[in-house]
Amino acid sequence: RKEVEQDPGPFNVPEGATVAFNCTYSNSASQSFFWYRQDCRKEPKLLMSVYSSGNEDGRFTAQLNRASQYISLLIRDSKLSDSATYLCVVNGQSDMRFGAGTRLTVKP
Amino acid sequence: DADVTQTPRNRITKTGKRIMLECSQTKGHDRMYWYRQDPGLGLRLIYYSFDVKDINKGEISDGYSVSRQAQAKFSLSLESAIPNQTALYFCATSDLQSGRAGNTGELFFGEGSRLTVL
């Protein structure tokens, strides 16, 4: 079993749609959690950290459920520019582990 | 100029050749990482280093070695390249530091080095 697993996708949605990505992790000692965005052939960049209380940044909402070892990312009012691969990242005691990523395509 | 710089950006080589990928950073971070990315597998950790004298194996270190020559430099070597090492390689740094407040743990990536082994 992979340490970090994500929805396989791809997700193809129209502009304005709401889309949710899920991620589970196996290491209960994991301490911090993130969502990264990666555009085609580019390096990953931090989208947002995920806090225990949940957090929101504009159209993006991230949530963490430690008991279920589950992280989610919700994107509201999708824009064409949201098309990318979204990577779930979990920081264990010493290193950062990535999910395989979920590809999102937002269409006009 | 990029804060994390990788060289070369693209390299095509033959089986059995020795290859070195270099990474330098101007962010002043102690922690540095090498990942490889393959389609459908995401990023997998090869090696990481928390300071100049510290080297740690990641998930897939076999066939690779690293050298942390200075705080700012972390190089990845393939002693004898093989075709299944064809991938996109990323170097990254992190501001996470024990006992130091205010760090986010964010990873800062270089632009990647695309390696093809024929």
Can you tell me about this structure?
The complex is a heterodimer of chains A (108) and B (118). With 108 residues, chain A is an all-beta fold. Helix content of chain A is 0%, strand content 55%. Chain A has strands at 4-6, 11-14, 19-25, 32-38, 45-50, 55-57, 60-65, 70-75, 84-91, 96-98, 102-107. In chain A, the strands form two sheets. In chain A, strands 2, 4, 5, 9, 10 and 11 form a six-stranded mixed β-sheet that branches. In chain A, strands 1-3-8-7-6 form a five-stranded antiparallel β-sheet, with no helix packed on it. In chain A, a hairpin with a 2-residue loop joins strand 6 (55-57) and strand 7. Chain A is globular and about 40 Å long. In chain A, 33% of the residues are buried. With 118 residues, chain B is mostly beta strands. Chain B is 0% helix and 55% strand. Chain B has no helices and eleven strands. In chain B, strands 2, 4, 5, 6, 9, 10 and 11 form a seven-stranded mixed β-sheet that branches. Chain B has a four-stranded antiparallel β-sheet with strand order 1-3-8-7, with no helix packed on it. Chain B is globular, with a radius of gyration of 14 Å. The chains are: A mainly beta (108), B mainly beta (118). At the A-B interface, strand 4, strand 5, strand 9 and strand 10 of A face strand 5 of B.
Q: What's the short version?
A:
The complex is a heterodimer of chains A (108) and B (118). With 108 residues, chain A is mostly beta strands.
Average pLDDT confidence of chain A is 91
Order of helices and strands of chain A: EEEEEEEEEEE
Tell me how many strands of chain B there are: 11
What's the number of helices of chain A?
Answer: 0
As an assembly, this protein is heterodimer
**Strand content range of chain A:** over 45%
Indicate the low-confidence ranges of chain B by residue numbers: 98-102
Structural class of chain A: mainly beta
Kindly report how far apart the N and C termini of chain B lie: 32 Å
Q: Which blocks of ≥5 consecutive residues of chain A have pLDDT under 50?
A: none
| Largest beta-sheet characterization of chain A | 6 strands, mixed
Q: Note the overall shape of chain A.
A: globular
Please identify the structural class of chain B as seen in this structure.
mainly beta
What integer value in Å does the Rg of chain A equal?
Answer: 13 Å
Distance between the termini of chain A: 37 Å
Range of helix content of chain B: under 10%
Q: From N to C, what is the helix and strand string of chain B?
A: EEEEEEEEEEE
* Number of strand elements of chain A: 11
